[in-house]
Amino acid sequence: MRYLTAGESHGPQLTTIIEGLPSGMPLVAEDINIELARRQKGYGRGRRMQIEKDKVEILGGVRHGYTLGSPVALVVKNNDWQHWTKIMGQEPLGDHTEEIKRKISRPRPGHADLNGGIKYGHRDMRNVLERSSARETTVRVAAGAVAKKLLSLLGIEVASHVIEIGGIKAESSVYSSIADLKERSENSPVRCLDEEAAKKMMAAIDEAKQNGDSIGGIVEVIVEGMPVGVGSYVHYDRKLDAKIAAAIVSINAFKGVEFGIGFEAARKPGSEVHDEIEWNSSQGYIRKTNRLGGFEGGMTTGMPIVVRGVMKPIPTLYKPLQSVDIETKEPFSASIERSDSCAVPAAAVVAENVVAWELASAIVDQFYADRFDALVESVNRYREYAREF
């Protein structure tokens, strides 16, 4: 499975084409729209979320509610495009001056502006920021939603929650089931399971917004139901935890990732890091603990996958940082685009979906997957084999 996205933040639409889905898999637009709506929620979101009400159009690869096995084309239109047709239009500029006035020559610290401008020769930084914008994650979530549908039909559930914002940590993130985790996370404005910590997080977001600043945090993705042995210990580029780590860090503003106890493993002896093995007739092989977050040797252990991502504060500030105009080389305050004071709750949804994509892709790679019914049968047979091994 693979997908490619296209489109700019203020362009007419965002597009993704997904290749490699099995035929005969149930899929309707609402499966995707649910995830798109979740991405737009969260305390600290900016005005853009009030403008865009993201809805997907399935324009290829699906007929009468089932995938065909051919590439699936998904489109999310930008409602704000009507106000940007001159600035972001595809036709040559001509003699217009209004668009030239919107030229951006002051790169913003923390963004792709300057590096991207140098790389591609863009002296108008808008050519960079329009594509490097986190708006692109809209269709990454759309692709992830398709992956989540495939996983759910195989009995694999994916959820996320926030464990830290602006230095405020959830003291308790205990949940009774994946369904309980999903419900409580959805009902929290900051997707935090600790209600007291959630109140403090919202207060910190309010304070950052009032100060023209932004704050980051840590999100956690939990996956239950993955079969044991998905991934590979044979080749470095087929290790599934490595692929998930890359997917997490590829999300805008994410700067770190860990599995299970993560970096804490560096401070503990081996006896407090590795997960001892047990066996019973109903479950097969299980671990007494899950400190390694569901992975050993680049493969799933059958235990819940636990992966966390660190999101830095959004660099677009209403109290702008200093920069240098690339035309005059004079210092200026960096230009401001619409922004969030905190996007960590929304980023948790993005993380959830990029992880889902990597898991679904690994399953399709490992099992026969031209037909969805055959994929289900193949995975079920493998689960039985692993249980009796």
TrEMBL record:
Pathway: Metabolic intermediate biosynthesis; chorismate biosynthesis; chorismate from D-erythrose 4-phosphate and phosphoenolpyruvate: step 7/7. Its cofactor is FMNH2. One of its GO terms (biological process) is amino acid biosynthetic process. The keyword Acyltransferase does not apply. It comes from the Bacteria. PANTHER family: CHORISMATE SYNTHASE (PTHR21085). This is Chorismate synthase. It comes from Bacillus methanolicus (strain MGA3 / ATCC 53907).
